[in-house]
Amino acid sequence: MSETLIQRIKELEEEVEKLKSQLNGNHTETNACPNNNKTNGKKGKKACKERPFDFSAHPRRHVALRLAYLGWAYQGFAVQENTDNTVEARLFEALLKTRLIQDRQSSNYHRCGRTDKGVSAFSQVITIDLRSTQYSGLGVSVPEDSKQDTAAAPELPYVKMLNRVLPRDIRILEWAPAAEGFSARFDCQSRTYRYYFPRGSLDVAAMTDAAKRYEGTHDFRNLCKMDVGNGVLQFERTILSATVEPADPQRADGTHPHDLFVFEIKGLAFLYHQVRCMMAVLLLIGQKLEAPEIIHSLLDVHNNPRKPQYSMAVDYPLVLYDCHFDGLSWKRDAEELGLAMSSLQQHWTESAVKAHVLRDMIRGLDATSGVSSGLCLLVEGSRQRKYRPLLERPLCESLESRIEHFVKRGRLEREQDEAGGETLHKGKRSKYSQNSTGAAAEVVNASPE
Amino acid sequence: MSETLIQRIKELEEEVEKLKSQLNGNHTETNACPNNNKTNGKKGKKACKERPFDFSAHPRRHVALRLAYLGWAYQGFAVQENTDNTVEARLFEALLKTRLIQDRQSSNYHRCGRTDKGVSAFSQVITIDLRSTQYSGLGVSVPEDSKQDTAAAPELPYVKMLNRVLPRDIRILEWAPAAEGFSARFDCQSRTYRYYFPRGSLDVAAMTDAAKRYEGTHDFRNLCKMDVGNGVLQFERTILSATVEPADPQRADGTHPHDLFVFEIKGLAFLYHQVRCMMAVLLLIGQKLEAPEIIHSLLDVHNNPRKPQYSMAVDYPLVLYDCHFDGLSWKRDAEELGLAMSSLQQHWTESAVKAHVLRDMIRGLDATSGVSSGLCLLVEGSRQRKYRPLLERPLCESLESRIEHFVKRGRLEREQDEAGGETLHKGKRSKYSQNSTGAAAEVVNASPE
C-alpha cells in the first residue's frame, strides 16, 4: 500500500540524510536500546544487551501467533542473506526487543509458509516458545529450580507487546497456547490463497470453469517453479478447492471492466510459485489465448513432462488469506484489533480514493469507457507480441535432468532401496546434508509462494 | 499512485547509491545532453547547450496545452525555490529538452491554475509560445527575415515530443493553436474540481444538501487560506455548481461504507485551499458534528468576519478535473492517448487490487463489516477529541488585521482614491512592486488549490 511505500520513502530519505551527514564528516550513530519499546526496529540494529536478562529464570510457553502483513514494501517473509528488509527480520527484532525470546536459534520457531517479495498475508501463522508469566497451563514449561508462584499473574499480553514495536504494516492478530510439539509448519490443515484481478476484457466465465479443473490431487510440476536444489523432488499436491468469484458479491451483476474478481485456492500444501503459475494460465484462458483444456494438458505430466516457458502472474495481488489449524484456542485483544482495523482503513481509503481518481481519468479519456484488451498487466515480463500457444513453446528442463544436475554436484545422492528401486536424498555436499536420511529427503515446502 | 511512489523510491535508491559511491571516493557525474530525447529529465539538470540552437530562425506558435498529472509524488504544480520536485519543473525540462522553447522567461507562459502538493489534475491548461514549422495558421508568428516555405510541413507533433521526455505521471493530452493574447489564466471560463471520499458512516444526504448551499456568489474568506501577502484582498467568488454524488452511478443503491462519493465543484475562480476547506466543513456535516446551516454562518462574513480554526481536508483525493475554454480547437493524438490510457490502467489496476486486498482484510477482522465511525481520515491533523463546534472555536486573524500587518511592513500601501474611499496596492517593499498600479492590485489567483 501507498502508506508502506511512503514509509519506504521515509526510510530512504533518512538514509540519504545519514549518508550526507557522513559525507560531511558528521558520523551519526544511534544506540538503540531494546529496553525502549518505542524504538522502531526497522533498521535492524542488533539489540544491545545493556542489562543481561536471565531467560532461564522465567517460564516459557509454546504458542502460535497469527500475523497479517502487507508484503508490498518487503523483500518477502523469510529472512534473506542479501537484505534486511523482510517480514521475519522485523518480527525477530520485535521478539528480541520485547525480550520474549532470547534468540532465534533457541526459540523453537516454525512458520506455516513463506511468502515471496510483494506477497501479503492475512493469516500467516508461526509457532514459537515465548517467555511466560505462567507456571501452569497449555504449552507452559517451567524452569527446574524456580519457585512456583501460586498467585497466578495474567499471561503476558503478547499481541500488544509485539504490535507496539512492529512496523504498522505487520500486525499480530491473535495468539494461542499450543501443546509441546505443535508445529505451524507440519500441523497446518490447509492453506488458502487469494489472487485479486480486474475483469478488464477477460472471459471470467471461462476462467471460472478452468479453475475448477485444478481441484484434486495432481502433479503440478508444470505449474510451479521447480526447486530441486532445495530437495523438492515430488510435485503431487492436493487442491481442495479453486474458484473464481466477484470480489463484491452484492455487485455481481453487470459486466463492467473495472469489476474485481478473486481467484481463491485452498490446498494442503503448495509448491514454489504454484499459485502465481496457476493464475498466469487462468489469465491466458481469460484472454482466450488458451482453452480451459490446457489445464488438463499441463497436469498430464506423462505426456507433457516438461514445463512450457511462460511468465507467472505478478506478486502484489496475492494474499496468503488463511492458514487453518485444528485444536487451537485463539485469543484476541479487542483494542489491538481495533487499532489494526484503523490502520487498514486508512490504507484502504487512500488506495480506494486513488483508484477512483485514476478510473475517472480513464473514463474521461474514453467516453466508451473501455479498458483495453490484452490485460497482460498482471503478467510479468514483456507485453503482447504475436501469441505463441503454450504447447508450442520452448520447454524448461525436465525433473530428471535437474536431478542429474544436482547428483553430479553431490548435492543429491542416489541410493538403491530394498525393493530395487531408487531413492534420492540430500548429498554430503548439500548444505543440509546433516539432515539427510535414507529416505527420499523431500523438503515439504509448505507454502513457498 | 503507487507507481509514482515507486519511481520516487527508485530515485531515492539511486541517490543513496550515488552518495555511497561518493563516500567511497568515486565521484559520479552525469552530463545529460538535452539532445538525447530519451533522457529522463527528472533530476532537473540544466540543459547543456552543446549545439546552440537558433530559435530566432524558426516560426513560433501560441498554443494551449492540456495536461494531466498525478500529483501524489510531487511538491505541487508550481516551481518552488526549495525543491525541484514540481510538475512545472518537469514540464520546463521537457520543453527545453525538445527545444520547443528557448527559456521560460521568453516563452509567454501562462497557467490556468496552481495545484498544491499531492493534488492531481486531469485538465490543467497552459498557454505558451512554442517553436513551429508553420508559416501561417492560427497563433503562428514568423521571423522577420525568414524565407517563406510554401510547401507546408505538418506542424510539430507537440504532444508526442513532450510525452516522450516527460515522466509517466505527467502527460500532455492535447494541444490547440491559440490567438495571440489568449491566456490560460485569464481566458478560462470555469474550473471544476473533484474530491473523492468513502461513505464510511457519513451522512451523505446531509452533505449533498449542504453542498448546494455553496452555490452562488459569496465571500469565501472563512473557507480558504487567506493569502493577503500575495495581494489577495477580495474574497468574493462564484460557485456555479456544488454537488455530492456516488462515484459509481450504476451502483447508487445500498449504503455500503466502502462506497465512494465525489464532491464536484465548478466555479469561475478559486481561492487558496478553498475546495479543501469547503470539503472539511462538508465532512464535519457528514459526521453530524455540524448542521448544514453552518455554511450560511461561514458565508455570513458580516456576522462572522473571522474564520474559526479548523483543518482542511487532505490533499490526495483532490483533482483539478476540468478547465473550460471557449474557442479552442483541441487536437488529439490517438496513439498518445492510448499510451496515456495504458499507463493509467496499470496504475488503476494496482490501486484497485490493493484496495480490495485491504478491504477483505478489514472484513476478515470484522464480520459485521463496519467501518469505524468518525472518518477523520480525510482531515489533516489529530483525531477525535471532544468535538468543539466551529462557532465556538478560536478565530484566525481578520482580513483587516492582516492588511494592517502588511501595510506596516511596506508590502501594501493605502491610498485615498477620488471618491474618498481607500484602495490598497502592492507597496514598494513588495517583491512584486514593479507590477503595482494605482488600482487595488489584487492578484487574481485563478486556481491556487
Task: Please name the defining characteristics of this protein.
homodimer, 449 residues, alpha+beta, Alpha-Beta Plaits, eleven-stranded mixed β-sheet, 8 helices, 13 strands, globular, disordered C terminus
Topology of this structure?
Two copies of one chain form a homodimer.
Chain A lengths: L1 H22 L36 E10 L17 H11 L12 E2 L8 E12 L8 E2 L16 H8 L4 E8 L12 E9 L5 H9 L3 E4 L16 E11 L13 E8 L6 H13 L7 H6 L18 E7 L6 E2 L1 H32 L33 H10 L3 E5 L5 E5 L23
Q: How would you describe this structure to a colleague?
A:
The first copy, chain A, has 449 residues and is an alpha+beta fold. Among the domains of chain A are: 55-142 and 151-177, Pseudouridine synthase I, catalytic domain, N-terminal subdomain (Alpha-Beta Plaits, 2-Layer Sandwich), CATH 3.30.70; 190-317 and 378-444, Pseudouridine synthase I, catalytic domain, C-terminal subdomain (Alpha-Beta Plaits), CATH 3.30.70. The first copy, chain A, is built from eight helices and 13 strands. Chain A has helices at residues 2-23, 87-97, 158-165, 204-212, 274-286, 294-299, 334-365, 399-408, and strands spanning 60-69, 110-111, 120-131, 140-141, 170-177, 190-198, 216-219, 236-246, 260-267, 318-324, 331-332, 412-416, 422-426. In chain A, strands 1, 2, 3, 4, 5, 6, 7, 8, 9, 10 and 11 form an eleven-stranded mixed beta sheet that branches. In chain A, helix 4 crosses helix 5 (274-286). The first copy, chain A, is globular. Chain A starts with a helix and ends in a 23-residue tail after the last strand. Mean pLDDT of chain A is 84; it is low at 26-47, 368-376 and 433-449.
